[in-house]
Amino acid sequence: MDIAFMWETFLILLTGLPLTLELAVTSIFAGGILAFFLSLLAVVGGPIGRGFTRGYVFVFRGSPLLVQMFLIYYGLGQFRPLLQDLGLWAIFREPYWCAVIALTLNTAAYTSEIFRGGLKAVSLQQVEAARACGMSGLLLFRRIVLPIAIRHALPAYGNEIILMLKATALASVITIMEVTGLAGKLIADSFRAFEVFIVAGAIYLAITFLVTRLMMIVEFWLSPHLRMRPPNLA
């Protein structure tokens, strides 16, 4: 392996890192908001809400993200006159926004199930205890149900964040020059796939490591009752 070439590759791929992080953060944030409302709809929306949520989750979990991205970027182009009439063509003609929409819709399906499981994990005894203390409605949800649900959902949600971070690599197939897109361009120019992909993989690995450490810190902060207390030496 040529170390000098790998260092040059690293510097080039770093220029695509901001776009990779922007795609990940935007889709995770938007998908998290959508997933929150979907999970609420599944829990308190009655038969219609549960049916809609199940259908949404079935479609977006049951089909590959790459296919969804192709359908949004290439497929919706067939409906250009309609999108122009609706004023949406300026969004769907841009690869960046097509990638964000595909990633957002996909992660919302997985995240809504994670959030729904967190809400379902709140025991009836905890809710009844809060009601006995005079809490109800929004106060009960904000101070009791939501914090407990977040603690239960956080480990699985951390995994989903990591998966979405790596899924941004699929945006390269619709001409977005993030880390993987730049890696493909370098390979086409140099025909040195091994070194380029090692460097690209190392960048993703480093980001994943940082995210996992951050999630561990958040889990520790949100679970004070599980922290090991020092022994009482008195």
UniProtKB/TrEMBL annotation:
Gene3D superfamilies tied to this protein: MetI-like (1.10.3720.10)
Superkingdom per UniProt: Bacteria
Location of the protein in the cell: Cell inner membrane; Cell membrane
Gene Ontology molecular function, alphabetical: transmembrane transporter activity
InterPro entries xref list: AA_ABC_transptr_permease_3TM (IPR010065), ArtM/GltK/GlnP/TcyL/YhdX-like (IPR043429), MetI-like (IPR000515), MetI-like_sf (IPR035906)
GO biological process, one term: amino acid transport
Main subcellular location: membrane
UniProt keywords, alphabetically: Cell inner membrane, Cell membrane, Membrane, Transmembrane, Transmembrane helix, Transport
Family statement: Belongs to the binding-protein-dependent transport system permease family. HisMQ subfamily.
UniProt-listed SUPFAM superfamilies: MetI-like (SSF161098)
Name of the protein described by the UniProt record: ABC transporter permease
CDD domains registered for this protein in UniProt: TM_PBP2 (cd06261)
Keyword check for ATP-binding: no
Membrane-crossing segments per the record: 23-44, 56-76, 162-184, 196-222
NCBIfam families named in the record: HEQRo_perm_3TM
Occurrences of domain ABC transmembrane type-1 (ranges): 17-216
Pfam families, per database record: BPD_transp_1
Cellular component aspect of the GO annotation: ATP-binding cassette (ABC) transporter complex
Topology term for the membrane: Multi-pass membrane protein
